[in-house]
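Subject: for your reference before the review

Hello V.,

The reviewers asked for a structural picture of the protein, and I figured it would be easier to keep everything in one thread rather than splitting it across files. Below is the amino acid sequence we used in the manuscript, unchanged from the supplementary table.
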Amino acid sequence: MFTRRKFLGVSAAAAAGMTGAGLTSSCSSVLPAPDVQAAGFGQDATGTVQVWCRAATQSGLTDLVKKFNASQDRLTVELTPVLDAQYVTKLATAIRGRSVPDLVDIDDINSMLFIYRDAFTDLTEPLAALDFRDKLSPGHLRLATKDDRVYGVPYLADNSMFWFNTELCDRAGVDPDQAVKSFGNLLDAARKFRKLGDDIYAWSFPANSPGALGFVVQPMVWAADTDLIQGTIPDQSGHIVGNDAVTQMLELHRQLWVDGLVPRANFSDDASRWGSDFRAGKIGIFPSNYSVVVSASDKAFHEKVTPRLLSGPDGGAAFFDGGDNMCIPRGARNASGAWEFVQFALDLPQQIDLPAGGYTPVRSDARTPEFAEKYPLATLPLERIQEGYAPTTLSYNLLYNQPDGPWLQMFRRAVFDGELEAAMKEAQQNYDRILGQGQA
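And here is what came back from the structure prediction:
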C-alpha cells in the first residue's frame, strides 16, 4: 500500500509545473457541464463509470468499488489508480484531450487547481439535497468551493494531531490537557519527558520531509487563527514577516532542537520511517496521523496513546484537513452514475469502515457509539470537525511539498541554524513570488 507517510515524502513533483499558467494551457478548453439538475440524476444509472483514484488511497477505493458493484447489477464502476506524483499532470492532459474520467478521487489540497480553471462540475444543488449535507467536513468542502458554489465532495479524511504516550505521561507527570494549552506548557512537558532517560525524547518531527512537516506543523499556526498565506485567489501573498504565530512556532521548534529534546535523527528524517521512534515507546509527544500511529501498531500500543488536537502559542486547536475529495469533471460521459457512486461512498456503512484503512470519516455523524467502541482513537477529529483546515491556494505543492521550497527552507534555517529573522524574511519573499506566479 502506498501510504500517506510515503506520499508526503515523495510528492514534491506532484503539481510543480501545474499551477497558474501551466494548468491554464493544459485545461484551456472548457468542456460541457453535465446537467446535475435533470430529473433522476444520480438514481438508477446504468452503464459504466470510469473512476480515477490516487495510488495513495487505492486500497480503500478498491474495496469500495467491489462493494458498490456487488450491491446492484445495472452500473459498473471501473477503477484506475494514478500515481500521486503524476495525477495533476495526467488529469490536465485528459481535460485538454477532451477525454476525461467520469469521477476523480483527488487529493483535496489539489481540488482548487481544477476548480479555478472551470474543469469540474458544479455540484451545489445535488450536494444540498443530501440529508447529511451539514455533517460533512467543512475543511474539505472549503477546498472545493469557489464563489459560494461547490465543485466536489469529501470522501475520506487524513488528519494530523498530537499523540501522547500515556505511559510516559504518567512517569513524567505530564497532563496532555494542560500541555496543549500553550507553547510554554508544551515546552515544560517536553523537558519533563526528557528527564526520563537518555533514550527517551520529548518530541519528534520529520525535518527533512517538506510535506510531512507541513502536515503536522502548520496547524500550530492555524490554531492561532492565522495562516502563512493571506488573501484570496487571485490576490494571495505570504503572511510570514510580522506573523507572531509563525515566529513562536519556529522558536518552539528551535528550543526543542537546541535543548536536545528531540532526537538528532530528526535533522535528516525524510518520513520514510515516520513514527518508528514513537511506536517504540521512546517519544512522549508525536505530531502525526491515525495511520502512522494506530494502523501501524498493535492493540497493546493503542492502549498507551491518547490524541489531542494540535495547538497554538496560547492554546486553540486545529488539525490538517487532508484526504480526498470526489469531483466530476466537466465532459463526464456518465455523471449520473458517478454521483450515484459518490452517494454510496458517503453512506454511513462505508464511512464508518474508513479507519480500517487508516483514514477518518468525513461525516461527523459517523461517530456512533458502535464506531467509538470499535475505533476509539479515531473519534476526536469527528467531535471537533469544525477545527479542520487546509489553505485554499493554487501553489500549495510549490510552497510546501518541494525539497527546495520556501516552507522547508525557512523551517530548517530557523530551527537548525538559528537564523529566524533572516529565514522568515527570505520565506516572505519566496511565498510572494510563488503565489504571484501561480495566480498569473
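For the response letter, the relevant points are probably these. The first helix runs from residue 4 to 10. The first strand starts at residue 47 and ends at 54.

Happy to draft the paragraph if you're swamped.

O.
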